[in-house]
Give the backbone structure.
Amino acid sequence: MDILKAHKKQQEAQAEKLGSVWIDSGLVFTNPLGDRLSYRTAYDCFKRVVDSIGVPSARFHDLRHTYAVNAIRAGDDPKTLQGNLGHATAEFTMNVYAHFTEELKTASANRMDSFARQLLEDK
């Protein structure tokens, strides 16, 4: 959060410096004029990062997939996730990521089994 807050201050200073030339896109990461980054800029930066951490085969789309899976694991409801991903329906979202919801169901069943066994042992 500290890094993002510092970035926002830098962006505000840039906007003040440029005045009416600044494009108030409302985006977090922008080009020097405040507009969206080009695909090429974002892609090149992404590739530099994944190369530096030893995952050169990672695709930009993998970030979206990772977000979706972690949102499911964190307990986001399907409708919220659908909106965040821009899918037409929550059903589509859950069909795409169904294998992760099955893992969560299995984990939940195992937790309930352990809980029930503990109750029986306590009697």
